[in-house]
Design a protein that fits this description.
Helix 6 packs across helix 7. The chain has 13 helices and eleven strands. The longest helix has 26 residues. A hairpin with a 7-residue loop joins strand 2 and strand 3. Helices cover 34% and strands 17% of the residues. The protein has one domain. The structure holds zinc ion (ZN). The site of zinc ion (ZN) has 9 residues, from loops.
Length: 446
C-alpha cells in the first residue's frame, strides 16, 4: 500500500447555487464557525507520552514485506471477477541503506538492491463467473490457496519456502515439543453448514490429508477458514484480501524461520518490518495464536525477535494525526484498553481489544514533526498488554528505536525506506500495469 499524499479535500463537483439557502441559515452559520474553530479540537485525556529509550543498539540486517491486490471486475453481465495478488520480501543491510540517497535515491542503486535481495510471490483467484473445468469456484479457490502457498512451479524463487513457514507456525516447530497435530478447524466438506464443529486436523508436518470425520481431502490451508465465506460459485473479494495478508505474514516469518533453524544468532541483529498491522482478522486468527506463542517462547529463551508492522491508514493512523502534533519529540505512547475503546474506536465493547487477532501492540511514536508513526510491536501476550501497558512488554523495543533514525525516508512524511522500497516491488498498479492484468484476465476467461 503506498504512502498517503496528505489529506486534501476532494474537488467540488456539484453546483454551488443549491448550497446558498443552507449557508444563510443562522444555525448552519454558527455550526460552520465552530467547525472552523481550532479551539474545539480536544486532545483526549489519558495520554502519557514517555521518552523513547536511548540504550538500544541499531540492528544491521533489515527485512521488509508487503503485498498488493488488483481485482479485475467486468462491469457487464455476467460480472466476471478475478483477483491478482503479489507479495514481496526485501532484504537490506545498513551498508546498502547508507549508500542510498534518502531524498533522490538513484534508480540504479535501487535496481541493484532489488536484483540481489528481493523475492516475490504472485498468484490469482477466480472469484465469480469464471469457468474452471470440472470444478466449482469453492473447490477451485481452495486448491489455488494450497498451490499458491506451496508456490512451486510458477515461481522457483520461493521454492516452497512459504509452505515450510506455514508448517513451522501451525505445528509450532520452533518448540522442542512441536504439536502432534494441527489445532482443529472447520472441514470444507462436512462443516459446510458452519455449525462450528471443527473436525478437521492434520498429523505433524503434513500439508494435506483426509478429514477424520468425512474422509474427504483437506489441505493445511483450509485452516485459514476462507471457505466459510464462499458459496459454491461465489467468492467475495475479501477472500483475496485475506490471502494477501496470509502471504505477507508468511513472507516476513520466512527469514525468522530460516535463521531460527540454521543461524539463530543472526536474529539478534535483524529487524523485520511488515507493511500494515500485525493482525490477522476473523478465522485467520488461527495463525495469530501460535505466532504470539513463538514471540513469548523466544523471549523466555532470552532471544528477542525484533519485528514491527507500520500502520499507514485506519483509525489508529487518524488518531496519530490528532494527538501527534502536540506530542514532544522522541516520545512514545502505549494506549491501554480503555483508551483504545473510548478514544480511538469510540466503541461500547467491554472486551479486550484485538484479543485473538493481534500479535502486536499499537504504539504511537513521534521522533519529530515529520516522523510520526503507528507501529505494531509484539509482546507475546494475548491482548498485547493493553490491560496494563508497560514498556518492558514490548519485545526488542530499544534496539528497534535505535534503528529507526537510520530508516527514515525524506520523500514522504512518516515513511521508512525499507517499506517504501518493498511497496515498489509488491505494487501491482505499476508492474504489471492494471491494464495488462485486465487484458490477461479477458484472454484466460473468454
Ligand atoms: Zn470433513
Amino acid at each position: 500500500m503506498p504512502y498517503q499524499r496528505g489529506n486534501r479535500l476532494p474537488a467540488e463537483r456539484a453546483s454551488k447555487i443549491g448550497h446558498l439557502e443552507v449557508i444563510q441559515s443562522p444555525l448552519v452559520k454558527k455550526l460552520c464557525e465552530s467547525f472552523n474553530n481550532p479551539d474545539i479540537v480536544q486532545i483526549p485525556d489519558g495520554i502519557t507520552w514517555q521518552v523513547l529509550p536511548k540504550d538500544g543498539n541499531p540492528l544491521n540486517i533489515i527485512f521488509s514485506a508487503d503485498g498488493s491486490i488488483q481485482t479485475i471486475e467486468d462491469n457487464k453481465p455476467p460480472f466476471k471477477a478475478i483477483s491478482f495478488i503479489k507479495a514481496a520480501l526485501l532484504k537490506m543491510d545498513q551498508h546498502a541503506l547508507g549508500k542510498l540517497d534518502k531524498e533522490n535515491p538513484h534508480p540504479f542503486t535501487i535496481r541493484d538492491i532489488m536484483k540481489e535481495s528481493a523475492l516475490f510471490h504472485a498468484t490469482s483467484f477466480p472469484l465469480r463467473h469464471v469457468v474452471i473445468p470440472d470444478k466449482t469456484i469453492y473447490h477451485a479457490v481452495r486448491e489455488i490457496l494450497f498451490e499458491s502457498v506451496k508456490d512451486i512451479g510458477f515461481n522457483n524463487s520461493l521454492d516452497g519456502a512459504m509452505m515450510e513457514t506455514l508448517k513451522w507456525i501451525a505445528f509450532e516447530k520452533w518448540n522442542d515439543e512441536p504439536k502432534k497435530e494441527i489445532e482443529k478447524f472447520g472441514c470444507p466438506h462436512c462443516d459446510m453448514d458452519r455449525s462450528g464443529k471443527s473436525h478437521a486436523t492434520l498429523p505433524f508436518n503434513q500439508e494435506s490429508g483426509n478429514c477424520p470425520n468425512c474422509s474427504n481431502e483437506i489441505f493445511i490451508t483450509d485452516m485459514f477458514g476462507l471457505h466459510q465465506n464462499m458459496a459454491e460459485d461465489f467468492a467475495p473479494n475479501q477472500v483475496a484480501f485475506d490471502y494477501m495478508s496470509v502471504a505477507e505474514t508468511l513472507l516476513i516469518f520466512t527469514p525468522v524461520r530460516y535463521f531460527w533453524e540454521n543461524r539463530r544468532e543472526v536474529l539478534k541483529n535483524t529487524l523485520l518490518i511488515k507493511d500494515g498491522p500485525l493482525s490477522l482478522r476473523a478465522t485467520l486468527a488461527k495463525l495469530s495464536a501460535p505466532i504470539r506463542r513463538f514471540f513469548s517462547y523466544a523471549k523466555e529463551k532470552d532471544f528477542n525477535i525484533h519485528m514491527f508492522g507500520q500502520e499507514k491508514s485506519g483509525v489508529f493512523f487518524e488518531h496519530l494525526q490528532l494527538i501527534g502534533e502536540s506530542a514532544p519529540d522522541n516520545s512514545f505512547f502505549y494506549p491501554n484498553n480503555t483508551y483504545i475503546r473510548n478514544e480511538i474506536q469510540h466503541s461500547n465493547s467491554g472486551g479486550i481489544y484485538g484479543l485473538d487477532t493481534n500479535y502486536g501492540a499499537k504504539i504511537f511514536i513521534k521522533i519529530n514533526d515529520y516522523n510520526k508513526f503507528i507501529l505494531n510491536i509484539p509482546t507475546g501476550l494475548r491482548g498485547e498488554g493493553v490491560e496494563n501497558p508497560t514498556i518492558e512488554k514490548l519485545i526488542g523495543f530499544s534496539d528497534m528505536v535505535a534503528t529507526l533514525p537510520k530508516l527514515l525516508s525524506n520523500r514522504f512524511e512518516g515513511a521508512l525506506v525499507p517499506i517504501e522500497l518493498v511497496n515498489g516491488i509488491a505494487s501491482l498498479s505499476t508492474y504489471p500495469s492494471a491494464k495488462v492484468l485486465d487484458l490477461f484476465s479477458k484472454s484466460v476467461s473468454d
